[in-house]
Amino acid sequence: MMTGLASGATSHRGGSVPDGRYEALAITIAESRGLFSVRRPCTPDIGQVAETLGLDVGYVSRLVSRGERAGRLRLAPAEDDRRRRVVSLTAKRRRLLGAVEQRSNDCMDALAAHLRPSQVKELLEAMETIRRLLTLDGAS
Question: N or C: which end of the chain has fewer CB within 10 A?
Answer without folding.
Answer: C
